[in-house]
Design goal:
Layout (H helix, E strand, L loop, with lengths): L5 H4 L1 H28 L4 H4 L13 H10 L17 H30 L5 H21 L7 H9 L2 H23 L4 H18 L2
Helix pairs in contact: 2-5, 2-6, 5-6, 5-7, 6-9, 7-8
């Protein structure tokens, strides 16, 4: 069942699901800013982007995409890597933070269901299903090394200068490339593959 279909089939379930789904993209961005702050860059803090207030983060198109197709985005948290002493380390840690946050969110949702719902209701199971699905999809998508996805920033942190230059040149067109590949379904197998690995890792920790 698509998330948007819940509006007509089960609006109560959608009401329960909407908030954690929106926070899936909010927490992703806050994690970027928090790690950058811990590494010495206060830009996100000065911009009041270390808050969990969704109004500070949500992007209209990204939110619509979240409910229409199962993934979305928030406004990127501003980060000035010039404030971070080790820029390569900063790129890797800051870019990884959002991915790790989504994986932890998925793990926490499953753990919560295990601990506090001995006889889980249909709504609780549905809520956890969508929260886990969205967060694993967000993490998997962002691991793909196409700018401006986080995977490209992680790659820039470990790649030689020539590769960094090529990725930087590609970034102005990256959004359109990603949307085109998603529309054609060409990224679906890779997202499912990476998502399967993430799901298996969670399954090992939480059998």
């Amino acid at each position: 069942m698509g998330i948007l279909k819940l509006l007509f089939n089960d609006p109560v379930a959608l009401a329960f699901i909407a908030v954690p789904l929106l926070y899936s993209v909010v927490i992703h961005e806050v994690a970027h800013g928090w790690v950058a702050y811990r590494l010495g860059d206060p830009t996100a803090k000065w911009s009041d982007r270390l808050t969990l207030n969704p109004l500070k983060h949500l992007d209209l198109m990204g939110t619509l995409m979240l409910f229409l197709v199962g993934f979305g985005w928030a406004k990127p948290v501003p980060v000035n890597f010039n404030n971070i002493q080790d820029k390569r380390k900063g790129l890797i840690f800051v870019s990884s933070a959002g991915i790790v946050a989504n994986i932890l969110f998925a793990f926490t949702a499953l753990l919560f269901l295990r601990l506090f719902s001995l006889s889980p209701s249909k709504t609780a199971v549905l809520l956890v299903h969508y929260v886990v699905q969205i967060n694993i999809t967000l993490a998997a998508l962002n691991l793909i090394p196409i700018p401006p996805l986080d995977g490209s920033k992680i790659l820039m942190g470990i790649a030689p200068v020539r590769t960094q230059y090529l990725l930087a040149r590609l970034e102005p067109y990256g959004f359109f490339i990603i949307i085109g590949l998603l529309y054609l379904g060409l990224l679906d197998p890779l997202i499912h593959f990476i998502g399967g690995i993430i799901g298996a890792m969670i399954g090992i920790v939480l059998p």
